[in-house]
Each structure stands twice: as structure tokens, then as C-alpha cells.
Amino acid sequence: MFFGTVERPPRLSEFEFEIPDKLIAQHPPKTRDKCKLMVVNKETGDIEHKTFSDIHNYFNKGDVLVLNNTKVFPARLYATKDKSVAKVEVFLLRELENDLWEAMVKPARKVRIGNKLIFDKNISCDVIDNTVSGGRVLRFEYNVDSLYPFIDKKGHSPLPPYIKRESIPSDKNNYQTIYASERGSVAAPTAGLHFTKGLLNKIEKKGVKIVYITLHIGLGTFRPILVEDLTRHHMDSEYYEIPHETADTINQAKAKKKKVWTVGTSTNRALETVVVSGFQITPKRGWTDKFIYPPYKFKMCDRLITNFHQPKSTLMMLVSAFSSKDIILEAYQQAIKKKYKFYSYGDSMLLL
Questions:
Q1: pLDDT value, residue 6
Q2: What is the pLDDT of residue 244?
Q3: Any domain includes 62
Q4: Cα-Cα-Cα-Cα dihedral of 54, 44, 13, 161, to 10°?
Q5: Do the domain assignments include residue 64?
Q6: What is the per-residue pLDDT for 1?
Q7: What is the pLDDT of residue 112?
């Protein structure tokens, strides 16, 4: 007979607090690895204040660093509706099949099935369906070889809603990790924005193995949780791939009791999705809607590099599950006192 108590998930309102507007980063740091780094002991809550470039000092030979190599594409485009001058914002989410895209449009109430959206003399699309999330399905027509060069040239970086400015050309580089290679995200895996080539080389020279996964981040990363009971929240599905080399390297490190470092909540979700018996992962690709919140026993991650996230967000829930709600809330309060910058272009946290 079991007489113990089962730890209940915290309620959504337990993660409610205010971030001063002046601490929400509107621009990236001038140098990627010169942002602030808060180092937190996930068990005791002890805190050190460092610079991100110091992070190589915490690695040991044989450790594994796992990065998400997804690439953000400039998903925000502008068109006119039919033959009018009415301007429509088209936020491409993902390509469903050849020339067929899911997108969000503004103003949504004025864009209906049957409308034609015109981007230039060579490129247009027809609105052919609505989606359950309030978006549209678009079928593109064009007189060029491929749609992607047009998107890359004319698209605007899909900056998060809490960045209260228009995107500028430099965002295409700044809102992108230096190792991004697999096109598909409409939001950056922001914990990785702080790495430079020099810093990665320094980490690798310590005998650390660097491997990659892919998880394409969708707009669901910004979608608020609307239920007090966390068990009732459903995540949007996102596409992921775990290569054989990555799985083998992680499994070998686990067998040798070396530390596995994950960069960002997206990397964590992908790895925890493919855990098999014990503490092994399997190479796999597919879609994941895994929602990680306290209490949760992580099987793959020993060290977590992350940014400072929005209160009551799914990202903050995962970080709290990796440590504890109380330790993370205290760390966030310390970050506010020390004037750390928050969110995508903000400062960084290392949980040991």
C-alpha cells in the first residue's frame, strides 16, 4: 500500500509577476557573448553573476553540448488584397506541401476564402481555407523558379510581439544563431543567440563534443496558457529531427556518466520526446507537442542554458521543472534587481 504524497503541479497563477518594461530587451547586445550570465545551482539556488563568454569554464572533457540548428526565415510579408490598395500582413507559418502554406493574416476579418493576395507582379496567392487557430491556407502562384529567394529578400524578421519596434535589416542576422542551417522556424531558439564561433571553438578544445538537433519553433512558443490547471494546456505541435550521430554521442556520454548540456527549451523538448528505456534516446523525426512543467524528471539534460522568459509561459514552466519554481522565481527577482535584460534579445541563465 502507498502512503506517500504525490507532488501536484503548480497553478498558473503561481508564476505571475511583473517584468519592468525597461528590462525587456528591444535590441541585441553589440557582441553576442558579452551579455550577462546568471549561473544558478538548480538544487540550492546559489547564484553567481558572470559574462556569457565565461561559460566555457563550466565544461569538462567528455561533456556533450546539444544545439538546435533550426533556421529562422523572414516570415513576415506584405501584400495587397485583390486589385485594391488595401495592405495585408502575411505571416508565413509553414509550408504544408509544394506552394501551399499555412499563414496568419492581418487584418484577419478582411481576408476571406476566395481573396487573392498580390505581393508583386510575379507572385500572388489565393486564400483557399481557414485554420482552426484563426489562420489561413494560401496557395501561391509565381512566375519565378522558387518562392524562397523572394521570401529571403522581401520578408521581414518575425520579431516577437514584446519587441515594440519594426524589424530592421540587421535583425535577419541578429535574430539567428551562428550555427543555424535548417530552415523552418518563425521564432529563434534564443538561448543559442549568445554563442560565437570563437566561444564554440574554445568549448570544443576542452574536449567537449558539440552535436545538433532540429526543432522548428512555431508561434505557439508565444501562445499564452489560458487555464489555471497546467494539465489541461495543450502545446502546438512542432517538427523535430534527432540525427543518428547526435543520439549515439549522447548515449555514449550518458553511459560514461558525462554531462549533457542542452541549449534552450526547444532542445530539451526534442530530446525528452525521444527518450526510450532508461536514459537512452533514439534517432527519430516527427512532431512533438510535449509540455514539460513541474514536477518532471529530466532524463537527458544535466546542464541547461536558457534565457529569461515571460512569466506564465510554457518556457518558464520547463525551466522551473528543471530546477524548482521557488528557485527560478527567486533567480528572476535577482535578475530584476541586477537589471538583467529579459526575453529573446536579453541575457542568459545557466542552471547547473
A1: 53
A2: 97
A3: yes
A4: 0
A5: yes
A6: 43
A7: 94
Cell numbers describing residue 240 = 523535430
Helices (H), 126-218: 148-154, 171-174, 197-205
Separation in Å, CA 91 to CA 200, 215, 344: 33, 19, 19
Structural domain range at position 271 = 12-72+172-351
C-alpha cell at 231: 494539465
Q: What is the largest CA-CA distance in the chain?
A: 73
Residue closest to 315 by CA, chosen among 266, 274, 348, 275: 266
Provide φ and ψ at 197, rounded to 5°.
-60, -40
In the block, residue with C-alpha cell 543567440: 193
Q: Give the residue from 305, 301, 310 showing the smallest Cα distance to 344.
A: 310
The reported pLDDT for the residue numbered 143 is 86
Ranges under pLDDT 50 in the chain = 1-4
pLDDT at residue 2, as a whole number: 46
Same domain, 199 and 55: yes
Helices 314-322 and 265-273 pack at an angle, to 10 degrees, of: 70
d(CA 98, CA 142): 12
Helix, strand, or coil (residue 13):
helix
In the DSSP assignment, the letter for residue 257 is: T
CATH number, domain at 307? 3.40.1780.10
Q: Map grid coordinates 557573448 to a residue.
A: 33
10 Å Cβ neighbour count for 156? 18
Q: Which cell goes with 103?
A: 499563414
The letter for the amino acid at 36 is K
Shared-domain flag, residues 100 and 206: no
Q: How far apart are CA 130 and CA 208, in angstroms?
A: 47
The residue written with cell numbers 540550492 in the block is 44
Residues 104 and 247 reside in one and the same domain: no
Q: Which three cell numbers stand for residue 51?
A: 559574462
Alpha carbons 285 and 214: distance in angstroms, whole number? 9
Q: How many CB atoms lie within 10 A of CB 158?
A: 22
Residues 6+ apart with CB under 8 A from 193: 28, 32, 174, 175, 176, 177, 344, 345
State how far the Cα of 198 lies from the Cα of 207, in Å rounded to an integer: 15
Number of structural domains, the chain?
2
